[in-house]
Structures are given as structure tokens and as C-alpha cells.
Amino acid sequence: MTATLIWILVALVVIGLYLSWTAGRLDRLHARIDAARAALDAQLLRRASVTQELATSGVLDPAASIVLYEAAHAARQAEEEQREVSESELSQALRAVFAESAQVEAVREVPGGEEAARELTEAVRRVPMARRFHNDAVRAARALRRHRKVRWFRLAGHAPFPMAFEMDDEPPSALADRAA
Amino acid sequence: MRIGIVCPYSWDVPGGVQFHIRDLAEYFIRLGHEVSVLAPADDDTPLPPYVVSAGRAVPVPYNGSVARLNFGFLSAARVRRWLHDGAFDVIHIHEPTSPSLGLLTCWAAQGPIVATFHTSNPRSRAMIAAYAILQAALEKISARIAVSEYARRTLVEHLGGDAVVIPNGVDVDFFAEAEPKTEWQGDTIGFIGRIDEPRKGLPVLMKALPKILAARPQTRLLVAGRGDEKEAVETLPAELRSRVEFLGMVSDEDKARFLRSVDLYVAPNTGGESFGIILVEAMSAGAPVLASDLDAFAQVLDRGEAGELFPNEDADALADAAVRLLADPARRAGLRARGSAHVRRFDWSTVGADILSVYETVTAGAAAVAEDERTTGLWGRLGLARD
After folding, report:
1. Does A180 touch chain B (CB under 8 A)?
2. Closest residue, chain B, to A180 (C-alpha)
3. Residues A68, A69, A74, A76: is their CA dihedral positive or negative?
4. Do B143 and A133 touch (CB under 8 A)?
């Protein structure tokens, strides 16, 4: 009788430890998503700022300037649910303006243009990186949250179900071509 | 930035991953970052000042061959000490799925962790069995890097998630500026790799050699690499054996001079390659490349634009292509020019900057690397751990 009781007790403790460990994993994943989301926000903002700076610097022709300024402004002001669409539109605008490497060369030639071109190249390269890291974290958290043990014991608490950030982040070909 | 790099394989044994880590660490140190590399090494091997030994790796049979791995209580303790002493902003683990230091570090650390997946092995049975454990460790990694589109695809299939592709780096100028050696010039075919490792493909080349020599008797095959030389030429008719010269293991300088000298570099590898750094080195040195059409090789050679491809394990096709290329100096000059231009994207200046961008992306807004208290054992979990 006592032996059975002890076994039940041991089993309960083991299950409890396992659940607490799983809750710890989930907590860490949520923290990772928060950090990745903050990094993605920072990269998106940086890209929009660099674009806006370029658009107002007078380096580009007026038509290209207006297109870029408009897209960058919209991306920065976008409401949360509009964000993916307006960031994608900024990617498209950048692709349209910097489709030819001659345009990039023209930016490089003016004083301070080398710097601006480098910043933009870096920004369009880092946005897809940050987005991939963010969505990778989201996928890992979703996989764990869908598990029975997490749903039955409500280990996720009130944390919202993580959503991937879907957008068109294809960099302009003239900036992405890394062959010197 | 304080960067901790974890190398899963013995520092005393030369290998692609080890060289990659060495070059990466030295690149970051030149830029003024603080770098510490944790690697398995025998206690008496001389180590560069930035390498910390994690103890001797133990040879164990794993995944069909004998691997030298680090595991167990002592290794885990050394990993913890290294993490604690290093106070890193970011740690970069190489090959996190191999049951060695990488996995141990993943288990013991928390914070910004970057991981590079070098190999693209088919999923092993051990990996399926250990999937739950592996997943718990791998989900701590904030950023995954795959060395090629091919490696990324296998990673996504086996483990889910996603990765950015950053190729392995090469010091292009080191190879481009090497001095050619006259005795290695003049109708020579080059091969570098382990002689006794069939996956490196020397047997395929040996099968193709009689046909090549029949068309061009003046051609010589130069082989650089460790292994049994007698066994390698056994399949060759005795009168042709003198056309093969074995150079044994060569130093880095000689390797560069070798690649600068040969008229054609042949990479007949039959599988198990996820990147193909040797092709990048050959192109850097301006050697025309003829390689088997493995996925990884096709990608490095820009789908055959920067070097020629032949159907894998097809000795006849290899012989035909080699004879055609050796007889056509214009075509080789064209390959040389395209290879040298193509290879710039693999230079450390590009690759290192990309890896640094990854570090900066994951460290932005995140706390520094720390020990993971949750895994320090039962006592820790119950809140009873003593300091």
C-alpha cells in the first residue's frame, strides 16, 4: 500500500518537473520571439530611414525621390495590421528605383553618396536576415505550443499565439549583386 | 564585440570546419573584436592564443565512421567554465547537431546564439531518435546559417525552420598572388584530397586516366593528399603509373602554388559535400575547374558558368571533358577569367561582414550570453542550488 503511494508520488513529481521544464522552454522561446521581433523592427525602421534620407537628399531624380519618399513614409507610419503590406511596397519601390547598377553608381559619385549606398545595401541585406530569424523563432514556438502537453496544461498562459511576419523583402538586384 | 566560437572537431586534426573557424576568428581579431574559440585538443598541442582547449576528443564509432567527439561530465564542466569566464555578447556554434561540444554548449547557454550548419548529411537514425532532445537544444539558437542553398534545404527538411545562406570564406588574394612552380606546370591535372577516402573521388579519376593519357600522353596527374599511394594506382596499367605523381600532404603555401600551376583542377567527389571550398580556392588561384555535378558543386560553380561539370561518377565523361579542356587554351582562359570574377563573393571581406551582420542582428536588444540555470541540474530546478 505505502509502496504504491510512494510510486504515485514519484510519478507526480517527475511529471511536474517535466511540465515545469517545458514551461521554461516555452518561456525562453517567447523571449526569443520578442528579441527577434525587436531586431526586425529596428532593421525595418533603419531601412525606411535610409531610404527617406536618400529621397530627400536630392541625389536622385525628382520622380524617383517622390516614389521612394512616399513608400518610406508609408512604411514608417503604417498601422500594425498594414505593416506587412507597406513594408513590401517599400521593397518594390526600392527594386523599381535601383533596378540598374547605373543608378547605384550615380548615388556613389556624389559627395557622401558612397556612405549612403553602403548603408542602404546593408539595410536591404539585413531585413531579410532579421525576418528569417524571427519567423524561425515563431515556427519553433508554434511547434511546441501545438503539443498536447502544452495545450492540456495551458503552459502557454495568456501569451498570444505567435504570428510570422510575411512580406516581400527581395533586395534590389543592383544592390544585392555582391560580385565586385 | 566579445565573440565566442565553438569548434566541434579536434583542433589538431586539419579539416574544413577547423580552417573556417581559424580564418573567421583571425578576421574578427584583425577588426578589433575579442574572440575566444573553444575546441577539443590534446593537452600538449600548441594552440593559438585565442583557442581554449575543451579537453581531448574521444574516438567513437558514430554515423558509419569513427568520429572524435567530446561529451560527458568533464567536457560539460569545461563548457560552463568557458561560458562563465568569457562573458560573451554572442556565441557562434558550428555543427550544433553533432553530439559534441556544439550540442553541449547549446544545452548549457542562453542568450544570442548563432549556429552554422556545415554538413548536409541525410537524416541519421540517431537524429530521429534524439529529435526531442535535439529540438530542445536547437530551439535556443537565435540565428541559423547554412553554408550553401543545398545545406539550407536539408536543414529545413530535417529540422524545420529556416536559415540564411552565407558561404564559407576564402582568402582570395592569398591564392591569387601565389607564385606558380615550374615543375608543376605543363599539361598537368591537379587533385587535392584524401587518397584513401573514396568519396573524394580519386578512383573515378584513376578510371578516367587511361583514356586521357591515350589522347594526350604528355599529361601528368599531380595528387596532393594523405593516403596509401600504392593502393591508389593499383587499378592503373603498370606503364601508366609513372604519369601519376604523389606530393603527400602539402602546406597552405604549397597548396596555393599548386593550384596556381596546374592546367586543370579536377574535383571528382562522389558525394558528402555540402560546399566545396577547394573549388573556391582553385578558382581564386585561377585554375580552370572540372567538377562532378553534385548540388553543392554546381552552386559554387554558378551552374557551370565558372567551371565545367561532368555527370557524377561517370569516368568516361570526365575523360572526355578533361581532354577537350586541355586541348583548348582559349576555353581555359575564359574559365579562368569568369572563375576569378565569380570568386570575389567568397572572399573573407564579404563573408566576414555578412556574419558580423548576423551577430549584430541577434545581439540588438538582447542580453549577453549567460549560463542557462534551468539546466544546471535537479537542484537548480528545485531552487536549491548553492553558489
Report:
1. yes
2. B344
3. positive
4. yes
Share of chain B above pLDDT 70, in %: 92
Nearest CA in chain A to B163: A132
**B87: phi > 0 → left, psi -120 to 50 → alpha, else beta; which?**
left
B299-317 confidence digits (pLDDT tens): 889 888 899 999 999 999 9
CA A112-A117-A122 angle, 5° bins: 130
Question: For residue B120, what pLDDT is reported?
Answer: 62
Shortest Cα distance, chain A CAs vs residue B106, angstroms: 13
pLDDT over 90 percentage in chain B: 44
Q: What is the pLDDT of residues B228-266, one digit of tens each?
A: 888 888 888 888 888 999 998 888 899 999 999 999 999
Residue in chain B lying closest to A129 (CA): B164
Q: Which residues in chain B (330-369) have CB-CB distances under 8 A to chain A?
A: 341-342, 344-345, 350, 354, 357-358, 360-362, 364-366
Find, among B140, B62, B370, B248, the residue nearest to A26 by Cα.
B140
Check residue A6 and give its pLDDT.
94
Q: How far apart, in whole angstroms, are the C-alpha atoms of residue B109 and residue B370?
A: 6
- Picking from A21, A125, A144, the nearest residue to B357 by CB comes out as A125
Three cell numbers at B157?
527538411
B13 touching A (Cβ < 8 Å)? no
Three cell numbers at B121?
A: 548529411
Whether A43 sits inside 8 A of B354 (CB atoms) is no
Most confident of B70-79, B234-243, B290-299: B290-299
Instruction: Provide the whole-model pTM.
Output: 0.84
Q: Identify whether the C-beta of residue B199 lies closer than 8 Å to the C-beta of residue B270.
A: yes
Residues of B in contact with A126 (CB under 8 A): 357, 360-361
The predicted-structure confidence for B169-222, as pLDDT tens digits, reads as follows 999 999 999 999 888 888 899 999 888 888 888 999 999 999 999 999 999 999
Low-confidence ranges of chain A (pLDDT < 70): 177-180
A122 interfacial to chain B (CB closer than 8 Å): yes
Q: Where residue B9 falls among pLDDT bands split at 50, 70, 90?
A: confident
The full 3-state SS of chain B, as one line of letters, equals CEEEEECCCCCCCCCHHHHHHHHHHHHHHHCCCEEEEEECCCCCCCCCCCEEECCCCEEEEECCEEEEECCCHHHHHHHHHHHHHHCCCEEEEECCCCCCHHHHHHHHEECCEEEEECCCCCCCHHHHHCHHHHHHHHCCCCEEEECCHHHHHHHHHHHCCCCEECCCCECHHHHHCCCCCHHHCCCEEEEECCCCCHHHCHHHHHHHHHHHHHHCCCCEEEEECCCCHHHHCCCCCHHHHHHEEEEECCCHHHHHHHHHHCCEEEECCCCCCCCCHHHHHHHHCCCCEEEECCHHHHHHCCCCCCCEEECCCCHHHHHHHHHHHHCCHHHHHHHHHHHHHHHHHHEHHHHHHHHHHHHHHHHCCCCCCEECHHHCCHHHHCCCCCC
